[in-house]
Known about the structure:
Tetratricopeptide repeat protein
Amino acid sequence: MVDEEVTPRPSISEVRQQYEDERFFQDDRAAAQYAYALAVRLREAGEVDEARRYARECLQLAESLPANTLDDVVSDRQSIGGVPLPEHFHDGVVRTRLADLLTAT
Length: 105
């Protein structure tokens, strides 16, 4: 049996702080990825209103990113904040994966 070390998920507040840091340093791609992770984590935690906020921010950031080539949209990380990232990260994928949070209620 292989003894694998499992890295615990960071808390939502830690992920939120990382998102705020990326916004401060104006790294829109990283901020979009953290917003995506927050939307997913908050949805899992039942905090739907806050998850919707981060889903909207993620989409807004993703729409502002270049997406003309495959290199523009390939994710440079496998996961953020304990959330697996899509292999290709762009506004179309965000709309699909977070559709339930982006639709008006």
